[in-house]
Amino acid sequence: MNFDHSIRRDEPHAMDSDPSRLDYQYIENLATAYWHSEVLFSALELRLFSHIEAGKSTIQALSRSASCKENGLYRLLNVMKQMGLIGEIDGTWFNSQSARLYLVETSPSYMGDFFLYRRTMQDNFRLLTRKISLNDDRNQKDGQLNAADDYAIRNFNYVRALDRLAREKAKEIVGILKGEVWEPPFLDLGGGAGAIGRAIARISAAGFADNGSRHGGARN
Hints:
By secondary structure, this protein is mainly alpha-helical. Among the domains are: 33-119, Winged helix-like DNA-binding domain superfamily/Winged helix DNA-binding domain (Arc Repressor Mutant, subunit A), CATH 1.10.10; 151-215, no CATH class. The protein is built from eleven helices and two strands. The chain has a two-stranded antiparallel ribbon. A hairpin with a 2-residue loop joins strand 1 and strand 2. The two termini are 33 Å apart.
């Protein structure tokens, strides 16, 4: 995503610490940053960088050496590739320069153990809210949902979260569809509680949107 780094003092956000960050995506990236950490930790635990450096560079050879399920490993490797840790050409995987330097066990500059040590700090950070809050309830769940929670509660939170995401994405989708010519009805798929359908209905001359009556969706 490209950001405009110019500063306009006549806009309300001009005094923000970084006026270029106007999109929710930046904050979502912060919320999901631990995904990248877990990918790195798993790769180190499976010794993937060392196996690749040792010549186990195909998915078949790497899955045998690391004792991994081939399909799951392939997905993990692709994420590692997107993160810039490894590369791939015609089915052959190779380490990035930084991975070769710091993540291969035979390298004099190997720091894998140090990075894995960072993982031990996770539990303390998960208690950050409790440590700061004046609420001394030791049984508080810090806002975490788990399988033991009531299904209706988990489902409500899931739908609400996706609806909030859909409201933001709807702005982009509506901008694209403004130049399109189409006829109702409109089926809103993956739109949370109908956020995309409602947004499109507002720009539709017919003013009609269908969120799928079979799933309890609303028509506007």
